[in-house]
C-alpha cells in the first residue's frame, strides 16, 4: 500500500464509525486493516495522536500504535526506538483524567510493550516515575499497572531470560513504587484515582514484586482492608480491594514463613465477618460474594498448615478460617481429621441445603411430566421444598464421589420408604454413577441386586449406562452363573422389544414404544460383558451365546418390522455388532440365519450399516473355515446392490457412509488373508478411482482418499504382493493433487496419509516401497521451506520425522492354521532393515533434527512437544547406535541468533548435555518445553 493521505484516513475512520451503510463500513474496515499492516501506519498513527481531531481517530491511532509495537516492532530500525519511546511519552503526558479510558489504556499498553522489548532501556520504572509523577500521575498509575500484566503476555516473544530480568527490575523498584502509591492514596480523595492505585498494587503483587515481609507497612493494603470493612463502599472499589487481598493471600500460600505476618493478615481478614453479615442484611450480593471469596482464599492459604497441625494433635490459629469459609477438607480413613472437620462440613451442608430451597408458594398443582410432580405424591414429615433441597444436595455430592469408592449406601436413604416397590434403587443410583467402570473385584457379589435394578430400569428412568454396569458386574461371575444372568438381563429388554414389534402404534422417540431404547440396552449388555480369556475350555460354548440365541428371533422380527427406518436399523446393527464381538467365533451357528436376514434387508433397504455389520462378520468368522463359503455368498449378494447405489448420478459423493463401509469391509476381508475375499478389491478399486478422476475428485472426497491410503497401508503391512501394485496407481494421483498451486498446504490429510504409508513401508521393511521416500522427501521439504512452513504444518513435521526413525516391526504370518477360534495372527521374525532406509536417515538426519528443534522452540504449541520428543529421542538413539554426527549440536548452532529473545551459550550447552542423556520421552519433553520458553 502506498502512503495514504490524512484526508483519506479520516474519511475511512468516519465511514467506519459514523456511516450507517454496512457495505461502506466493511470497505472502510478492510482498508484501515490493510493500512495498519503497512509500514506507513507508524507515522499516520503518530500524526493522528498529535492532531487529536476526535475521539474515534485518537482511539484508532492508539490501538494501531499498540498493535504495531506488540506485533511489528521489528519493522523499525533499532536507532528509531528511542524516538518512538519519546513520542509515546509525549502523547501520554498530554492526557488527562477526562481522556477516554480506552485511549489511555491502549497508549499505556504500547509504552509498556515497548519498554519490555527494549533491553537497552535500563531502569525504565524509575525513569517513568520521574517523568510522570509531577506531570501526569493519573497516566503513570495506568502505566505501572499494565507493565507487570504484560510480562507474561503470550503475544510478546520476550523469552524467559528477559522476563526474569524485568521481574528483577520490578523488585528493585518496588520501594519507589510503594512510596509513590502511598503518597497518591494519601493526597487524593478521588475514587477513580483510588481504584487505579489498588489495581496497580494488585498487578505488582501478582508478579511477586512486593516483598511479603513489608506487608505491615504497606499503606495500600491497609486502605484495601479499610474499604472491605465499610459495607457501604462503592462496588467497583470494593471488588478491586477484594481482588488485591485475594492475590496477596495467594502469594502468602506459596511463601508463608513469617508467623507474625500470617497472624496479622488473619486477624485483619477475620474482622470482616461483621461487614459480611451487614452486606447480607442489606442484600448487597456483590459485596457478600467478595467477602466469601476472601474468606475462601484465607482458608486455602492456611490449608496445609491447618492439616499439619491437626494431624499432629495441635490446633492452628487459622482453624477459625473454617468458620468463615467452611472449606471442605477430605482425608479418607483418618478418623482424627474426620472428627476435627466433621462439624464444619455438617454446618456447610446444612447451610447449603437451607439456601438452595425453592420458593414454597406454588399456586397450582404441577403437571404430570413436571420434575416436581413426585413431591405431590410424597408424604414427608416436613415441607416439600426441604425434601427437594436435600435431594439436590445429595445429587451434587454424588457427582464428586470417585467411581472406585466402595462406600455403603447411607443409612438415611431418601428412598427407604419405597423399598417394597423398588428393591434396588440405591444400588441402581450407585452403578449408574460408576458405570462403565464398575470395579471388577467388588461387582460380582452385587449381580443379583443389579439384575433387580435392570428389571426396573424404566421406572427408575435410567439410561443404557445401567445396563453397562449390569454387564460389567455379571461378567465377574462363574460361567454357569454368567450365562443364566445374561439370559435374565436380556429377557427384560427382549420382552420390551417384542412389545414394540407387535404394536402398531406410531413410534414416539424416547418412549417405551421406541425400539431404539431397548436395542441400546441390549447393545450395552453385550458390549461390557468381559469374559476373561482362558477361564473356560475353548470347546465350551461362550456363556453369552445363549442370551444371543434368545434375542436373535426378536432381532430378526425387528429387522423385518422396521426395515425402512434407518435410525432403528443403525441401532439394531450396532447391537448385533457388539453381540458378535462378545461371542466371537462361537457365534458361527447363527451365521446362516443372520446372513439371510442381512441379504433380504439390504435388497429392500440399502442401509450402509449392513455393510459395516458384514465387515464385523468377516473380522470375527473368517478364520473359521466352515464360515468362509457363507461369507463369500453374503458379500457377493451385497456388493452388486452397493455398486448399483454408487453408480447412480453423484452416487459416490452422496453416499459417503456406503463408500466408507465398503472400504472397511474389504480391508477386513484382506486383513483376514482369505484369498477368495481379496479378489473383491479388484471390483472396488476402479469405482473408487472413477470418483477421484472427476474434476476436483481428490479434493472433494478426502474420506475416500483416506480409505484408499488405509487400504494400501494394510496391503503393505500384510505384505500381500497382489495388492502392493495398487500403490502404483494411487501415487501418481496423489502427487498430481499435491503438485497443484498450494496443493501441499491445502491437502494436509493427503500429505499425512502419504507419510503414514511410507512410514509403514519403512517399518515393515518392504524394499519395493522404500523408494517412495525419494519422491516424497523433496516435496515435504518444499512445503516446510515456504514462509511459515514449519508453523503451519506441524502434522507434516511430525510425520516427516516419524518416517525416518520408525523402527521395523515384526511381520504377520499369513495363511497359517490358527490354534483357537478368534486367534488369527501369528508373529515371525522381521527382515533386516534395508540399507536404503539407513542411507536416507544419514542423508537427511541433520536437516530433520534442525527442523524439528526449530519448530519446537519457535512455532509448535506445548501440547505437540510430546510427539516431537518421542521422534527426537529415537533420532538420537539412531545416531548413537550408528556413530552418526552430533545432529543436535549442529541444530543448536543453526538456531537464529538475531532475535531479542534467545538463550545464552551456557543455556544451550546445558540443554544439549541434558538432552543427549535423556532416555525418557517425558524428560525430553520437559527439556524442550523449558528451552522453548527462552525464545517466547
Write the layout of secondary structure elements.
Blueprint: H1 6-18, H2 22-37, H3 41-51, H4 55-71, H5 81-93, H6 101-116, H7 124-132, H8 137-150, H9 160-172, H10 174-187, H11 191-206, H12 219-229, H13 235-254, H14 259-270, H15 273-281, H16 285-301, H17 303-311, H18 321-325, H19 335-355, H20 374-377, H21 384-398, H22 425-434, H23 440-443, H24 447-455, H25 457-460, H26 465-474, H27 479-502, H28 515-527, H29 545-561, H30 566-583, H31 591-604, H32 608-621, H33 628-647, H34 651-654, H35 656-671, H36 675-678, H37 681-693, H38 697-700, H39 702-718, H40 721-724, H41 726-738, H42 743-746, H43 748-763, H44 767-770, H45 772-784, H46 789-792, H47 794-805, E1 811-813, E2 826-828, H48 835-858, H49 865-882, H50 887-894, H51 905-917, H52 921-933
Antiparallel strand pairs: 1-2
Helix pairs in contact: 1-2, 3-4, 4-6, 5-6, 6-8, 7-8, 8-11, 10-11, 11-13, 12-13, 13-16, 15-16, 19-21, 22-24, 22-26, 24-26, 24-27, 26-27, 26-28, 27-28, 27-29, 28-30, 29-30, 30-32, 31-33, 32-33, 32-35, 35-39, 39-43, 43-45, 43-47, 47-48, 47-49, 48-49, 48-50, 48-52, 49-52, 51-52
Pfam families: TPR_TNPO3_IPO13_4th, Xpo1
Protein name: Putative transportin
Biased composition (Basic and acidic residues): 408-419
Structural class: mainly alpha
Low-confidence stretches: 317-333, 406-446, 715-720, 761-766, 801-834
Mean pLDDT across residues: 74
Distance linking N and C termini:
30 Å
* Most strands sheet: 2 strands, antiparallel
Number of strands: 2
Oligomer: single chain
Tell me the β content: under 5%
In one word, what is the shape?
extended
With helices defined by DSSP (H or I, 4 residues minimum), what is the helix count? Answer: 52
Strand order of the largest sheet: 1-2
What's the helical proportion of residues? Answer: 55-70%
User: What integer value in Å does the Rg equal?
Assistant: 36 Å
Pfam family, one: Xpo1
Region (Disordered): 405-427
Protein name: Putative transportin
Biased composition (Basic and acidic residues): 408-419
Amino acid at each position: 500500500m502506498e502512503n495514504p493521505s490524512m484526508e483519506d484516513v479520516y474519511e475511512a475512520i468516519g465511514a467506519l464509525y459514523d456511516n450507517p451503510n454496512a457495505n461502506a463500513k466493511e470497505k472502510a474496515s478492510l482498508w484501515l486493516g490493510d493500512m495498519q499492516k503497512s509500514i506507513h501506519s507508524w507515522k499516520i498513527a503518530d500524526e493522528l495522536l498529535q492532531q487529536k481531531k476526535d475521539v474515534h481517530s485518537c482511539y484508532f491511532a492508539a490501538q494501531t500504535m499498540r498493535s504495531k509495537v506488540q506485533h511489528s516492532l521489528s519493522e523499525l530500525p533499532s536507532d528509531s526506538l528511542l524516538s518512538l519511546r519519546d513520542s509515546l511519552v509525549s502523547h501520554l503526558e498530554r492526557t488527562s483524567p477526562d481522556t477516554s479510558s480506552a485511549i489511555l489504556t491502549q497508549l499505556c499498553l504500547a509504552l509498556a510493550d515497548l519498554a519490555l522489548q527494549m533491553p537497552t532501556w535500563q531502569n525504565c520504572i524509575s525513569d517513568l516515575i520521574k517523568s510522570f509523577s509531577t506531570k501526569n500521575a493519573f497516566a503513570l498509575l495506568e502505566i505501572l499497572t499494565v507493565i507487570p500484566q504484560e510480562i507474561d503476555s503470550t503475544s510478546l516473544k520476550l523469552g524467559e531470560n528477559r522476563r526474569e530480568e524485568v521481574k528483577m527490575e520490578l523488585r528493585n523498584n518496588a520501594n519507589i513504587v510503594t512510596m509513590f502509591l502511598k503518597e497518591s492514596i494519601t493526597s487524593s480523595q478521588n475514587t477513580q484515582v483510588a481504584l487505579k492505585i489498588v489495581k496497580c498494587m494488585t498487578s505488582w503483587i501478582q508478579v511477586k514484586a512486593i516483598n511479603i515481609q513489608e506487608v505491615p507497612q504497606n499503606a495500600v493494603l491497609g486502605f484495601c482492608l479499610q474499604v472491605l470493612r465499610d459495607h457501604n463502599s462503592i462496588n467497583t472499589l470494593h471488588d478491586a480491594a477484594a481482588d488485591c487481598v485475594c492475590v496477596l493471600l495467594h502469594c502468602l500460600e506459596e511463601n508463608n514463613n513469617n508467623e507474625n505476618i500470617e497472624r496479622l493478615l488473619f486477624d485483619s481478614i477475620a474482622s470482616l465477618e461483621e461487614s459480611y453479615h451487614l452486606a447480607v442484611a442489606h442484600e448487597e450480593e456483590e459485596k457478600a460474594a467478595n467477602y466469601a471469596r476472601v474468606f475462601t482464599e484465607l482458608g486455602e492459604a492456611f490449608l496445609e498448615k491447618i492439616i499439619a497441625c491437626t494431624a499432629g494433635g495441635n490446633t492452628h490459629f487459622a482453624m477459625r478460617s473454617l468458620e468463615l469459609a467452611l472449606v471442605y477438607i477430605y482425608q479418607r480413613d483418618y478418623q482424627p481429621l474426620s472428627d476435627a472437620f466433621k462439624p464444619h462440613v455438617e454446618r456447610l451442608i446444612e447451610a447449603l441445603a437451607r439456601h438452595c430451597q425453592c420458593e414454597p408458594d406454588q399456586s397450582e398443582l404441577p403437571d404430570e411430566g413436571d420434575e416436581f410432580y413426585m413431591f405431590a405424591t410424597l408424604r414427608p414429615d416436613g415441607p416439600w421444598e426441604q425434601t427437594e433441597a436435600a435431594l439436590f444436595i445429595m445429587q451434587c455430592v454424588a457427582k464428586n464421589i470417585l467411581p472406585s469408592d466402595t462406600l455403603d449406601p447411607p443409612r438415611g436413604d431418601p428412598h427407604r420408604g419405597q423399598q417394597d416397590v423398588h428393591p434396588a434403587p440405591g444400588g441402581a443410583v450407585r452403578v449408574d454413577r460408576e458405570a462403565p467402570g464398575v470395579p471388577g473385584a467388588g461387582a460380582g457379589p452385587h449381580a443379583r441386586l443389579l439384575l433387580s435394578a435392570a428389571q426396573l430400569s424404566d421406572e427408575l428412568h435410567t439410561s443404557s449406562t445401567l445396563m453397562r454396569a449390569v454387564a460389567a458386574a455379571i461378567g465377574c461371575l462363574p460361567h454357569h452363573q454368567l450365562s443364566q444372568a445374561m439370559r435374565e438381563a436380556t429377557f427384560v429388554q427382549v420382552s420390551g422389544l417384542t412389545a414394540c414389534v407387535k404394536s402398531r402404534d406410531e413410534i414416539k422417540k424416547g418412549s417405551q414404544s421406541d425400539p431404539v431404547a431397548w436395542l441400546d440396552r441390549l447393545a450395552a449388555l453385550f458390549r461390557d460383558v468381559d469374559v476373561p480369556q482362558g477361564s473356560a475350555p475353548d470347546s465350551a460354548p461362550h456363556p453369552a451365546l445363549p442370551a444371543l440365541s434368545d434375542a436373535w428371533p426378536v432381532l430378526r422380527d425387528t429387522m423385518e418390522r422396521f426395515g425402512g427406518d434407518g435410525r432403528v436399523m443403525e441401532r439394531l446393527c450396532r447391537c448385533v455388532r457388539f453381540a458378535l464381538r462378545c461371542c466371537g467365533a462361537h457365534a458361527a451357528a447363527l451365521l446362516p440365519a443372520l446372513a439371510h436376514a442381512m441379504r433380504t434387508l439390504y435388497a429392500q433397504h440399502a442401509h450402509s450399516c449392513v455393510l459395516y455389520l458384514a465387515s464385523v462378520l468377516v473380522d470375527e468368522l473368517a478364520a473359521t473355515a466352515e464360515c468362509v463359503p457363507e461369507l463369500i455368498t453374503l458379500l457377493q449378494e451385497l456388493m452388486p446392490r452397493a455398486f448399483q447405489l454408487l453408480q447412480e448420478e453423484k452416487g459416490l459423493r452422496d453416499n459417503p457412509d456406503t463408500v466408507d463401509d465398503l472400504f472397511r469391509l474389504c480391508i477386513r476381508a484382506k486383513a483376514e488373508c482369505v484369498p477368495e475375499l481379496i479378489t473383491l478389491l479388484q471390483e472396488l478399486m476402479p469405482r473408487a478411482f472413477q470418483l477421484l478422476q472427476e474434476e476436483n475428485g481428490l479434493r472433494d472426497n478426502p474420506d475416500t482418499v483416506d480409505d484408499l491410503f488405509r487400504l494400501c497401508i494394510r496391503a503393505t503391512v500384510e505384505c500381500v504382493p497382489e495388492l502392493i501394485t495398487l500403490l502404483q496407481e494411487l501415487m501418481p494421483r496423489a502427487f498430481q493433487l499435491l503438485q497443484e498451486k498450494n496443493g501441499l498446504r491445502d491437502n494436509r490429510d493427503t500429505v499425512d496419509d502419504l507419510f503414514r504409508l511410507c512410514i509403514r513401508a519403512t517399518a515393515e521393511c518392504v524394499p519395493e516401497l522404500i523408494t517412495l521416500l525419494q519422491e516424497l522427501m523433496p516435496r515435504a521439504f518444499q512445503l516446510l521451506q515456504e514462509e511459515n512452513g514449519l508453523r503451519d504444518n506441524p502434522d507434516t513435521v511430525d510425520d516427516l520425522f516419524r518416517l525416518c526413525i520408525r523402527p521395523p516391526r515384526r511381520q504377520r504370518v499369513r495363511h497359517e492354521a490358527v490354534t483357537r477360534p478368534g486367534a488369527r495372527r501369528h508373529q515371525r521374525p522381521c527382515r533386516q532393515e534395508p540399507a536404503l532406509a539407513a542411507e536416507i536417515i544419514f542423508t537427511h538426519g541433520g536437516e530433520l533434527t534442525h527442523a524439528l528443534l526449530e519448530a519446537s522452540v519457535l512455532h509448535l504449541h506445548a501440547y505437540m512437544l510430546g510427539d516431537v520428543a518421542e521422534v527426537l529421542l529415537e533420532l538420537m538413539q539412531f545416531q548413537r547406535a550408528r556413530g552418526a554426527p552430533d545432529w543436535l549440536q549442529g541444530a543448536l548452532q543453526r538456531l537464529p541468533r538475531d532475535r531479542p529473545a534467545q538463550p545464552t551459550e551456557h543455556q544451550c550447552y546445558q540443554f544439549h548435555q541434558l538432552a543427549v542423556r535423556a532416555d525418557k520421552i517425558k524428560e525430553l519433553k520437559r527439556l524442550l518445553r523449558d528451552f522453548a520458553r527462552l525464545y517466547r
